[in-house]
Every structure is written in C-alpha cells, then in structure tokens.
Write a structure and sequence with these properties.
The chain has about 260 residues and is of the alpha/beta class. It contains ten helices and twelve strands. It has one domain: Spore Coat Polysaccharide Biosynthesis Protein SpsA, Chain A, CATH 3.90.550.10. Strand 1 and strand 2 form a beta hairpin.
C-alpha cells in the first residue's frame, strides 16, 4: 500500500487502485454576460443550448460525484439556473466578477475535497481527458494539475484539478483583479506556494493549434458546424472524430484561426 498527503487530503492506493477516494466535484463557471459573444452559453447548437451539450459531455466522466454550475446572482442568469435544474445538476449563484469567490462558495457548499474546473465555453470537453487528468492528480502529490494548450491539447479541452486547500489559499491571498476573475491565476503565479503538476496530451490529441472553445462568433460557427456533422441525439461526439474531421478538412479549422485568445 502507498499513500500521499496533499495538504489535508490523504489518498491510499493498493496495486495502483484507489482505496479511499476523496470527494471530488466538477464546477463549471457559466454566465450569459460574455463581452465578446453575449449569451453564448445559451446559443443553440443542433436545437439545444451549448451549455446543455457541455453538461452531457461531463456526465460520462466517472471520477467526480457531481456537477455544479457556478453562475451569478443577476436576473439575466436565471435561464442558466433553469437549465441546470432541467439537466439534473446542481447550481450555485455568486458574484458576477469575483469568479474565485464563486468557486469557493460552490466548493464549500458541496463540502468537497477536490475541485475539477471546467469553463462553459468548451462544448467539446472530453470526459475521458477529464478522468485522465483527475487520475493523474490522484496518483501524484500535487496541489494542482492542469491540462490545456501548454501541455499539447487543442484549446477547449482545458481541465484543471486542485485541492480545496489550494482553492482556499488562493482565495485568501489573491487580491488582484486577475486573481479574482481567473480562479487559478494566483496559483500559477506562486509556484513557491503550491505543488504544481501538468498532464501532457497523448499523441492522438496533441493538436494545440486547433481551437475548440467559443469566445467569438467565428468560434461558434466552427463548433456548430462540427455538431451539425458529427452529433447524434443521445450520444456525445468522440473527440478523436473531431480531430479526424479537422485533419481531413483543414479549411474548417481556418474558420476561427484568426480569433485572438483573451489575455490577462
């Protein structure tokens, strides 16, 4: 048997099998007030809101207990609350701009040990990748593990996993505006205070040049086209099929190639 400690989190393994699992929840930040593409989380793709597709894609993941949609207290985000209810997932309402406090509130209410962070602009999030990142986190002594473009994935498969203690530390010590808006920004800026790990993309998903998130209209056009071609009701699109399509028809990937990722 082997064990490791990450703050107060203790996990035991026997022959690489987890004997005692911490409570893990997935928190998705979602609101309608996007500045570049207002209401994007509710925009319809093949007849259903984008956020509904994202929730459907998270449900097959096996290593977290529940999904929580972290939205705002604004009236304009009541449809997000209703969507969460209809999808059978939990929700938490908090500050519009202080997303970090929203995560803390949602995590505290859930009494979780570990948070999986996903953003609502990733309607092709891959549940297998999410589980793989969580597994990597559980098998190492890290406070935080991230996967994204910097580790070889297409943008839009971004997954972060961190302890409740790391989230709380960032909440108490991160006072700058970017710390509050971007949740894990303080953690990234202070590697001397956190044990950081990064999950590398496998060869079949190592296409960091592909942009599969939705920030602007051209992003939405591409994702909508992918859904039109590959989606079947009651199923989720395999991410490998998305990669195959973009490799086969490179002009599709050019639809949003000029969209600039928002910087802090």
């Amino acid at each position: 048997m082997k064990t490791f400690n990450s703050g107060k989190l203790k996990i035991a393994f026997l022959n690489d099998e987890v004997l005692r699992m911490p409570k893990i929840v997935c928190i998705v930040q979602a609101r309608t007030g996007s500045t570049r593409l207002p209401g994007k989380v509710l925009k319809l793709m093949v007849g259903r809101p984008m956020l509904s597709h994202l929730i459907d894609r998270l449900k097959p993941a096996t290593l977290f207990e529940e999904i929580i949609i972290a939205t705002t207290t604004l009236d304009q985000d009541l449809p997000v609350v209703e969507l969460a209810k209809q999808a059978g997932v939990k929700y938490y309402r908090g500050d519009k701009d202080d997303v970090l406090s929203r995560y803390v509130g949602a995590a505290k209410e859930a009494k979780t040990d570990v948070v999986v962070r996903v953003t609502s602009d990733c309607p092709l999030i891959d549940p297998v990748t999410v589980d793989n990142v969580v597994t990597y986190f559980l098998h190492h002594d890290f406070d935080y593990v991230g996967a994204g473009v910097s580790t070889g994935f297409p943008r839009g498969l971004d997954t972060e996993v961190f302890t409740w203690q790391a989230l709380l530390k960032a909440h108490y010590l991160g006072h700058e505006k970017p710390d509050r808006e971007h949740v894990t920004y303080y953690i990234h800026r202070h590697p001397e205070r956190f044990k950081l790990g990064y999950y590398q993309a496998p060869p079949e998903l190592r296409y960091p040049g592909f942009r599969l998130c939705v920030d602007e209209e051209n992003d939405f056009r591409l994702i909508n086209e992918i859904y039109q071609r590959l989606y079947f009701p009651g199923e989720i699109i395999e991410i490998k099929k998305v990669i195959e399509l973009l490799k086969k028809e490179p002009k599709l990937a050019l639809m949003n190639v000029h969209v600039k990722q928002k910087t802090i």
